[in-house]
C-alpha cells in the first residue's frame, strides 16, 4: 500500500515539474495546454510520457520533448524517463484546460 502512495505522490510531482515547462509561443504551460496525454510510471520508477505538439511542424518539435525528458530524469525519485510523441489524436484547442483558455482570453 505504501508503494502505491509513493507512486501517486511521484505522479503528482512529475506533473508539477511538467507544469514548469512552457510552449515558447503560447504563455501557458504544456500540461494546461493539453500536450501531455499520459504519464506512466512502472514499479522501477521508470517514467514514460506520452505527449503531442500543437502541430507536427512545431518549431520546438525536437527541443520541447527533450526538455520534458531531461527535467523528469533530473528528479531524484525517477530512475529513467522517456518521452514519446504522438499525433493520435491530433492536438486541438478542446484539449486545453479551462485555466489555459482563460489565460489566453478564450473564455
From TrEMBL:
Positions of transmembrane segments: none
Domain MIP18 family-like: 12-85
InterPro entries assigned to the protein according to its UniProt record, in alphabetical order: Fe-S_Maturation_MIP18, FSCA_dom_sf, MIP18-like, SUF_FeS_clus_asmbl-assoc
Matches recorded under Pfam families: FeS_assembly_P
NCBIfam families: SUF_assoc
Descriptive protein name: SUF system Fe-S cluster assembly protein
Amino acid at each position: 500500500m505504501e508503494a502505491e502512495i509513493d507512486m501517486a505522490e511521484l505522479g503528482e510531482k512529475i506533473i508539477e515539474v511538467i507544469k514548469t515547462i512552457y510552449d515558447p509561443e503560447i504563455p501557458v504551460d504544456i500540461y494546461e495546454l493539453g500536450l501531455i496525454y499520459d504519464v506512466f510510471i512502472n514499479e522501477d520508477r521508470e517514467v514514460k510520457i506520452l505527449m503531442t505538439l500543437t502541430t507536427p511542424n512545431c518549431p520546438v518539435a525536437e527541443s520541447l520533448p527533450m526538455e520534458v525528458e531531461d527535467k523528469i530524469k533530473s528528479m531524484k525519485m525517477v530512475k529513467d524517463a522517456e518521452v514519446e510523441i504522438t499525433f493520435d489524436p491530433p492536438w486541438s484547442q478542446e484539449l486545453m484546460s479551462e485555466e489555459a483558455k482563460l489565460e489566453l482570453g478564450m473564455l
